[in-house]
Model the fold of this input.
Amino acid sequence: MTEPPATVNSGAAYTVQWNNYGLQGEIPNAKLEFYDGTVWNNIDYKTTNTWIVSNSGSYGWTVPVDVRSVACKFRVSDPNNATATDDTNPFEIRPLISVSAPAGTAKWVIGTQTGNNIVWSITGPVPTVKIEYSKDNGSNYTYVISPSVAGNSSPFEWNIPADKDLVTDHTVGLEQRARVRVMDTSLSSVYGLSSGLFMVKGSITVTNPNASSPALKVGVAQNIEWTTPCTGACTMGNVKVQFSRTGGAPWTDVATVGFDSSPYTLWTPPIDSITNNAKEAKMRVEQVINGEVVDDSDAFEIEGIIRLDSPDIDAPTWFVGDPRQIKWTPTGTFGYVKIEYSSNGFTNESATVVEAPTYANSANNVQAAYDWTVPNLIGSNFKVRISDVNDANVVDVSSSPFVIKGKVVVSEPNGGETWYVNDTNRKIKWQATGPIPTVRIEYSKNNGGLWTEIVPDAAAGAGAGEYPWPSVADAISDHCLVRVS
Done:
């Protein structure tokens, strides 16, 4: 007989061959037998035929699927002459394991189970199998999914642990992907491999900023926070933290840090990131070795900052009609501000005056100034308010109230005049700025060292005013002054 290979697989087609020495005419038939390692059987294995076949020198045979032995043999003999016989050397019938899932398109996530089906089929007797996992393209099977399950228990739904080193690397050109091996527990050379290399990945969830976060401030450090299911021996390598003002491309790299380094505390919204009172900006956290593992935050708002410099804590006293400057310093880049003032300290909006509805802002951290003519109002509870035209929440108000007073300029006497005691034709004249209903008029004969009242409440008003002095006082001096207030 022609010797069979050392190993044939269960269910395979095999041609049994022997040398008939051209004696088919003399010996038209041959008897073929199969030894299953225990007993001899007819070649068709456990059927009731006569084991007689044509002495053609070959016979097509299917390897039985219920035999597993390393001591199998074939025998050919003359049905009419038991001494004309030949046996082969022993050979092995070995079962087959074929793994059909996961396929190369599979993308499984650690910490999940549903749908993670490992599917195999077995040809031949395999009572139990061992299921193993490789994360380096099948070079090493370092993790045992199950040490022993029934061979007929396919499919096996894998609850992928989140605390083991199972995440695959998908760096372009350096990919290290996953493969599953299903192995006969009694013979390690009997196994099947998953048909393709597949992905096992973690996941990322960005938790801060989020939809309920207050508006972020330009230049103020903000925590970026995320979670992953990865714990224990699990590793996802580094993640890339990115920012977008518009919530989409282009994304600006912020940092590359370890996947488990949340929160990232070193980011401050840049000066050009203001979203104009809209939730548009987003953060993104993406795994470096697998761009499919990525999450974007909820959209959030970024605001600039305005610091009112004057009038502020300096609480000045300003006079009607005087030229003054309102000064402020912005943080962030935003184009225009609104300038307002109030005579009631913005207790309510009834006394609010819009001085400039739109005024060009200065550059980031550069003090801006608005030239202001002090209005024709008098009071002690004035405040100024500066706000971003596009976002009324970006605002600053004078910390302390300031005072606006009217102004009186005496025009007569104005130096060099000589008035005589008891003169009745002298007029004290002034120019008033602001709503001044009455004025107090005094004189001094010692250059302001001591003042004497002429009248406590002379009628006044805005503009030119005068008071006819009924009789010039008996206060002879070369150092006389008149004061109107």
